[in-house]
Specification:
Shape: flat
Strand order of the largest sheet: 1-5-4-3-2
Number of domains: 4
Number of helices: 19
CATH class of the largest domain: Alpha Beta
CATH topology of the largest domain: Alpha-Beta Plaits
CATH superfamily of the largest domain: EIF_2_alpha
Strand content: 15-25%
Largest sheet: 5 strands, mixed
CATH architecture of the largest domain: 2-Layer Sandwich
Length: 516
Amino acid sequence: MVVTIEGALRDERFRLALPHVEVEGAGLGRPVRWVFTNEREDVANFLSGGEMLVIEGSALTRPDRSMTDLQYAKSLVDAGVAALVVELVEGVTAMPPRMLDAARRTGLTLVGLKARVPFVDLCQSVNTAIVRERMSFQHEVDTMSNALREGLSHVNGIDAVAGVIAGLFGESVAVFDADGLLAAEAGGPFRAGEPTVVIALRGRPRPVGALEISCRASTLDDERRRAVASIVAPVAALHLDGGARVGMIRHLTEGPADGVHATAAEAGDAHAMLDALGFAGSCIYMPFALRFRSLVEGLDAVSTMIERFCARRGCDVACVLEGDVMAGWLSAADLSDGLAEFSGRCLDALEGLGGDGIYVVHGKVAMDTVALVDGFAGVNDVLRGGARYGEVVGTMAAAVDRFVATGDMDEAVRTLIVRTIGHDVLDSPMLLDTLCACFDNLDNKTGACAQLGIRRQTLYNRLDKVTQMIGVDHNDPRDWSTLLFAAKIAEAWRRAGGARDGGGHGQSVHHGPETM
């Protein structure tokens, strides 16, 4: 068992100091990595997270302090401090109100000590318990690891791998390959709705698949999961190697290295991989990622979706499973039905997966390799924000949140452009001005026509062209509003001389004449 804040406060020496929780913050069940004392204002610069920091109350009221209580509390939270413990005995006998307010605003756990106990005694007592628990825990992990290695040393198939794991933990076990197909199961059937853990199995060059284990008798913590993964993955890879195809799909779904826009070299590599995978250069795509609460309960629905989508002539799906995440793309071989129709078909397929146990994230339609790779940057960015099972979220819907959360303005605008209007629209002054006119007039078509000096049919022709270029219909109120906002930001950024990444970093935006 790890030592938590609550456990530390129940320690014999701590109890003598009469601890009182002033602000609970993120909760008293949070683990404590170490207890120590340091009253420097910039102590956060020397922390690695999980510490319980003990200081005197007078340290919060010194006249020469350069930081406010709010700045100090925020620095501790940003550093991952488990709790701030303040002695309130001499001079400062009550928690300063500004510190209380700062802790509440930042989510910092704040504890007051009403009796004096030497800080060295507090630190030594709890830290000894932490070391003791750590040694005991490591012994348990080592014992489990040795038993697992021994059991897997003579297996002759993936069914035997599942059997060894089920026997060791006394749980139900399912092993899935990188295509999301059930490869083996042991330990009896899973029960509907029961808690499980999903462990990613990764080989050195590419994903192997995933392992799901029920949690009836015990729960595998992060360290035990890592140990299981490191031992099982190399053995499972001998029986589940999906070949270069899996590696190429995984590489494409990782997105560009900078997390925003593919370079020319990345685009060339990605195009070669798509060709090798059998996707013609004329394909259109929609990138997606699915996060599962349980693979056992969720993958059947995905298999059904893929079968139905691929039943239509010229449609295909490529995807790869790694742990609890499946990422890939839906595609069509031609544009005969139009981008808007293809986008709607993809959304219908993905929205059908939005059950309680699956979190669906999708990008906008991609007409070429660069747009597909860039699309995965947005998908992965949204996916990292945490799972919201049962929801279907598009990167367009999350684009504004990403914009305001980015500190660097150039990066914020670059990201917004890539995930909304794209560089093709940005490089078309006629289309960009048209979208800005719609924004200026609250998408009133009559007002936009008057501002641009064009006829209504000309306006609709331009809007239809935008729809055909990026797959967002001007009748879609949510995504179209995001598109207009992005166009206005891009136009202002361009006029201000903002740099953009469009094949070459740091190029300024330049438009030539264009008519329609």
